[in-house]
Design goal:
This protein folds into two domains: 5-100 and 293-311, Rossmann fold (3-Layer(aba) Sandwich), CATH 3.40.50.720; 103-284, NAD(P)-binding Rossmann-like Domain (Rossmann fold, 3-Layer(aba) Sandwich). Helices cover 33% and strands 14% of the residues. It has helices at 18-21, 38-45, 61-65, 85-90, 103-118, 121-129, 158-168, 183-189, 196-202, 222-227, 245-253, 293-311; strands at residues 5-8, 25-28, 50-53, 72-75, 94-96, 150-154, 173-177, 192-193, 205-208, 233-236, 259-262, 282-284. It has a seven-stranded parallel sheet with strand order 8-7-6-9-10-11-12, sandwiched between helices. A five-stranded parallel sheet has the order 2-1-3-4-5. Helix 5 (103-118) crosses helix 7. The chain starts with a strand and ends in a 10-residue tail after the last helix. This is D-glycerate dehydrogenase. Belongs to the D-isomer specific 2-hydroxyacid dehydrogenase family. Residues 6-320 form the D-isomer specific 2-hydroxyacid dehydrogenase catalytic domain. GO terms for molecular function: glyoxylate reductase (NADPH) activity; hydroxypyruvate reductase [NAD(P)H] activity; NAD binding.
Length: 321
């Protein structure tokens, strides 16, 4: 009996794929630093029973409908806005993601980004490396404290709760906005639910952790930034498209807010000519929220386990419903 064919859209360690090699024929895009072109992926998907994909891969209705053997798409990410889930269901294709395993790593990165932006860490590092530090001054590169400040979390899911847990160590007052109340977060971390308007207008730090949906596209726009404190710091580790980047730039230039820490952008990778990169009060990272070695390995393992389960006639471990 011929083994099913599985295509992997980015180069992964061979050891990670050993369990899959026992039951399937594997082919892998040979690059780890560039995505497979859409037309090439569509060609491979036509004969594939399984796809192991990345967030940068477009898995749309056209590709899914042209893949008669496809049974499972395992996205190596917690997000899945790159996949047309409705079209997958229509074609009886299981879609899986990798939740939970990246929660703590992403929360750590979120907190590091908040600290770096508030205390001007990246700006200070460049100041030293460029030989500008020739004297000490009382207010040289002075930033903002986190201690006992108001933290507003938009999207109190697993990662939001992990951020709240860390914020307790800084004695921060924790507020959140969510589609529904999170009673566990309120009981465990003392988080207080606020309307979106009340949160953005009252908090010192605002962290965006909301998923990208039709309702959250450009959720953070010019009107929202104008409502924030002029000392507020905005952090985005969800999806770039939830922010109107032109409006964010104007808000920073006009000093409507104090700074921004961004791990995600609307178009990735971001170009060096992007206006936001010209601002000293912006800390920009290359979408590395979950990028610890251990976490990325666990994400790969879970994606492999999901494909194996479906190909062997079981349900995937983490199915997108």
């Amino acid at each position: 009996m011929e083994k099913p064919f599985v295509y992997i859209t980015r180069k992964l360690p061979e050891e990670l794929l050993e369990p899959l090699k026992q039951v399937a024929t594997i082919e892998m895009w040979p690059h780890d630093d560039q995505p497979i072109p859409y037309d090439k992926l569509k060609e491979k998907a036509k004969k594939a029973s399984g796809l192991l994909t990345m967030l940068s891969d477009q898995i749309d209705a056209s590709l899914l409908e042209a893949s008669p053997h496809l049974k499972v798409v395992a996205n190596m990410a917690v997000g899945y806005d790159n996949i047309d889930v409705a079209a997958a269901k229509k074609n009886d294709i299981t879609v899986c993601n990798t939740p939970d395993v990246l929660t703590n790593s992403t929360a750590e990165l979120t907190f590091a980004l908040m600290l770096a932006t508030a205390r001007r860490i990246c700006e200070a590092e460049q100041y030293v490396k460029e030989g500008k530090w020739i004297n000490w001054s009382p207010f040289l590169l002075a930033g903002q404290d986190l201690f006992r400040k108001k933290l507003g979390i938009v999207g109190m899911g697993r990662i939001g709760q992990a951020v709240a847990k860390r914020a307790k160590g800084f004695d921060m007052d924790i507020y959140y906005h969510n589609r529904s109340r999170n009673e566990h977060a309120e009981a465990e971390y003392g988080a207080t639910y606020l309307s979106f308007h009340d949160l953005i207008s009252s908090c010192d730090y605002i962290i965006c952790l909301t998923p990208l949906t039709s309702e959250t596209v450009k959720l953070f726009n010019a009107t929202v930034f104008k409502e924030m404190k002029d000392t507020a710091i905005f952090i985005n580790v969800s999806r770039g498209a939830v922010v109107d980047e032109a409006a964010l730039y104007e808000a920073l230039v006009n000093k409507e807010i104090a700074g921004a820490g961004l791990d995600v952008f609307e178009k990735e990778p971001i170009q060096t000519t992007h206006p936001l990169l010209s601002l000293k009060n912006v800390v920009a990272l290359p979408h590395i929220g979950s990028a610890s070695v251990a976490t990325r390995w666990k994400m790969g393992e879970l994606a492999v386990e999901n494909i194996l389960a479906v190909l062997q006639g079981s349900k995937g471990k983490t199915i997108v419903e």
